[in-house]
Hints:
- Strand 8 (204-207), helix 6 and strand 9 form a beta-alpha-beta unit.
- This protein has an eight-stranded parallel sheet with strand order 11-10-9-8-5-4-3-12.
- It is α/β, with parallel strands linked by helices.
- 30% of the residues lie in helices and 14% in strands.
- The two termini are 34 Å apart.
- It has helices spanning 58-61, 67-79, 112-122, 141-145, 183-198, 222-237, 279-298, 322-335, 350-357, and strands at 3-8, 38-43, 53-56, 88-91, 126-131, 135-137, 175-177, 204-207, 244-247, 261-263, 306-308, 339-341.
- The protein has a single domain (3-361), classed as Alpha-Beta Barrel (TIM Barrel).
Amino acid sequence: MSQRRITLRGWQSWTHCKHGPTFIKRIRNHSPFPYDDVVVTIPEDKKSKSPITGWCSWNSFMLQVSEQGILTVVDWLVKRKKDIPVEYILIDDGWCEWGDWVTPKRKTFPDGIHGTAKKIREKGFKTGLWLAPFLASEHSNLVKEKPEWFCRKRFGRWVEGRKNYRLDRLVPGRKYLLDFENPEVFEYILQSIRKIVQEWGITLLKLDFLYAGHFNPKYRTGEQADAKLQELLRAIKAMSPELQIIACGCPLAPAVGLVDAMRISDDVILPPLKRVPVINWLVHSIRLRQLQDNFQARKETNVLWNIDPDMFVCHPSYGLSHLQRKKFQAVIKQANGVMMLGDYLPELSEEEIATYLIPLFR
């Protein structure tokens, strides 16, 4: 059998393949253990699932996502299905407290995610759902009811699992790290995801912050952390042969063969910067450049999984110029992988739709 060797550059999805850490070190982008680029050997005849197309709620609604808002976009897509034939509606963060994965917010999802998914399905689309299996919000019921399930540092301090910056303790809305070495924790997460997939009718999972488990203080080597991540992904993959898994913020090497799509760079767009001129252009320009760099470094990994460059947005309020939006569009098309839209689609002009969206599907 003919084989080829592929180099996995960088530790995880958000690691910038070209540059080192910034003056504010993003700890999450760099492994807590010594790590080198990994070379893997892949059979030439390896097959992946077909790339998916969809719309994601994050940039439009962030944590204020609701069934009503999502169905507004769904109705818009129904009318434009000939030109913009997306398959999935991905409900991103905000639908529940992190950790309480079987308890949707009833105020915004009165019929639960199962009811919303049914309505989406009746409109001709499939439903995807975001979750971060290694983490739980400080406000979750899980933290209150099962404090012994969480990782602790010296003197009993809880571990902030996102590891964004060195000043994490000053950041509100903490997300605590679950101890996956505890069999009860592992089983709780699997039972939650099993219900989401088998009872709620979710056919796409976006699994985020998958690097977090590597910061468990119990681990002494990266191999230990990799093995637990692989165990989790393997168990989820076995739940349904049709289930699509997008890995985000994920260590690359341990995910080989266990996910259908892989994010290859940090978020290009920060939604809070929408309509914040100059600053949004500066920040989003840097992040778009990172995506371009990472795509060049990781494009050959498309033999391992479908590449997910990030959701595409084109509304001018995000600060990107016409040329930058065309470059963003070009990366999406060249990746020929996950093609996820992120704009609040009803506010786009016909010119923006014709210039930026429709060409993505041709």
